[in-house]
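Here is the promised in-class demo. Please do not try to memorize the tokens; focus on the logic of going from shape to residues.
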């Protein structure tokens, strides 16, 4: 991969995009970056702070993204919703790796079809999972001690003051407007649930406070279910006051993974991973995106083949959890 060409970050001046760019700059100081946004002044300020970066305006309604002619890039990263798939088409037309994070489970169908129609164009990383795939990777890392996984229960608490920037809020409102149904795997069958079964859910915080939540339709469910073979998988999400903010601190995020199954010796085995980041979802989402970019560009591991990928198909779970610790993710102990 030619790393003299820049990574084009769509929405690069937003919270997820700017934080991703900062992390990439820290880990890969020589990697050129292009901060693309609707407001050139805002994008330029982010680029100036990074160094080895430039800024452009984009128009996601246009097939050429409104980019100046003669530009070349090494990858396209959509940290905002690529609603018309023009970012994806641009990447395919130019043979560039592509990563997206803002598609709901139902929105993934057009991306999958676009990728299936042009399987040799370039690798496409579908990372519209919680924290761009980090919960899935943490679950798979925890599942490595099992010979057989029967149940995986995932849950996350997002502080209501940590919903992200305007684009993230729009994404959340859009996804909730499409469906309040949840997706679970039950006895090996992927099942849509609604009503009280999806909405009358409680999620416990680290300090024991219980928040109302919802059993959500999210790519984490099929990713974990198919990667582990677990016949029973669900993901619960709650938004409210986080443990950190109740203690007078900033909004934090926490997520919990409970796994049941059998050990290599054939005995019953259970494990729990309960993790938090004191700065909320932003640094973890940025990390998930950054890990994806690293792998798409061959900066960590071999270059991926063209076609469709998910975070767990590219990124080693142990490497991901190590990086999570490095950026300040902390375990929550009972």
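The designed amino acids, position by position:
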């Amino acid at each position: 991969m030619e790393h003299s060409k820049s990574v084009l970050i769509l929405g690069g001046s937003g919270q997820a995009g700017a934080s991703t760019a900062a992390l990439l700059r820290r880990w890969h100081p020589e990697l050129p970056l292009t901060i693309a946004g609707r407001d050139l002044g805002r994008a330029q300020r982010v680029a100036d702070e990074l160094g080895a970066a430039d800024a452009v305006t984009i128009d996601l309604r246009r097939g050429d993204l409104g980019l100046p002619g003669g530009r070349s890039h090494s990858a396209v990263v959509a940290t905002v919703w690529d609603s018309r798939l023009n970012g994806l088409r641009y990447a395919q037309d130019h043979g560039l790796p592509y990563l997206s994070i803002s598609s709901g489970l139902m929105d993934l169908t057009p991306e999958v079809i676009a990728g299936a129609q042009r399987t040799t164009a370039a690798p496409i990383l579908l990372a519209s999972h919680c924290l761009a795939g980090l919960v899935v990777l943490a679950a798979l890392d925890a599942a490595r001690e099992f010979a057989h996984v029967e149940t995986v229960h995932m849950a996350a608490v997002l502080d209501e003051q940590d919903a992200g920037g305007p684009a993230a809020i729009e994404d959340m409102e859009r996804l909730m407007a499409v469906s309040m149904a949840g997706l679970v795997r039950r006895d090996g069958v992927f099942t849509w649930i609604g009503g009280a079964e999806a909405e009358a859910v409680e999620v416990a915080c680290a300090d024991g406070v219980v928040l109302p939540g919802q059993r959500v339709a999210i790519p984490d469910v099929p990713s974990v279910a198919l990667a582990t073979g677990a016949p029973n998988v669900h993901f619960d999400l709650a938004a409210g006051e986080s443990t950190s903010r109740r203690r007078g601190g900033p909004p934090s995020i926490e997520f919990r993974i409970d796994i049941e199954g059998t050990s290599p010796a054939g005995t019953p085995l259970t494990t729990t991973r309960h993790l938090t980041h004191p700065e909320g979802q932003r640094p973890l989402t940025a990390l998930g995106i950054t890990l994806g970019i690293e792998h798409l560009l061959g900066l960590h591991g071999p270059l991926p083949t063209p076609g469709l990928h998910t975070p767990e198909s590219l990124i080693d779970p142990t490497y991901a959890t190590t990086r999570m610790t490095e950026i300040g993710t902390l375990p929550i102990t009972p």
